[in-house]
Amino acid sequence: MSYLPNGLPAPEPESDGLDKPYWDGTRRGELKVQRCKGCGTFQWGPEWICHKCLSFDLDWHKVSGKGRIYSWERPWHPVHPALQGHGPYIVVLVELPDAGNVRMLGNLLGDPKQDVQIGAEVEAVFEPHDDAKSPFTLVQWRLT
After folding, report:
1. Backbone phi and psi for residue 59, each to the nearest 5 degrees, phi listed first
2. In sequence order, what are the residues at sequence separation of 6 or more whose Cβ sits closer than 8 angstroms to the Cβ of residue 5?
3. What is the arrangement of strands in the sheet containing 121-129, beginning at the earlier edge strand?
């Protein structure tokens, strides 16, 4: 069962293939982040060039999927027609300590009216959508 209702657009890798390793990783239950082979800097979102040293020599690095809530929001309004009547929900910005503290957005699973604490520890949860036209897996977050 998915956290959000059916009818939302399915995420697809960019046509240039830049984020394909991320989506391939999620299908295997792995969280991957870009890392520069030259200077070792992690970065998110995916780019063709390192944000720090401007190298084009980037790779994808598997990380633990453990992080902490850096910020959060509780939307009550539908931002897409499929979300009509499906609110509130919690969106978290998660900082990943084992990936240079890069931050990723995602939904926080559980009661949408729960108290959320900045700094709370979370872990990635991989939500497969195998029945989609192009199967994909979303990364959601849950408190640990």
Report:
1. -140, 175
2. 82, 83, 86
3. 102-107, 91-96, 66-73, 121-129, 136-143
Q: Is 24 exposed, middle or buried (0-12, 13-18, 19+ CB in 10 A)?
A: middle
Q: How is residue 66 written in tokens?
A: 């453990």
Domain ranges of the chain: 20-143
Identify each DSSP E strand in the chain by its residue range.
31-36, 42-43, 58-63, 66-73, 91-96, 102-107, 121-129, 136-143
Name, in order, each residue with C-beta under 8 angstroms of 61's C-beta and a sequence gap of 6 or more: 32, 33, 34, 35, 42, 99
- The 10s digit of each residue's pLDDT in 62-112 is 999 999 999 999 999 888 888 888 889 999 999 999 999 999 999 999 999
Topology annotation, domain 20-143: OB fold (Dihydrolipoamide Acetyltransferase, E2P) (2.40.50)
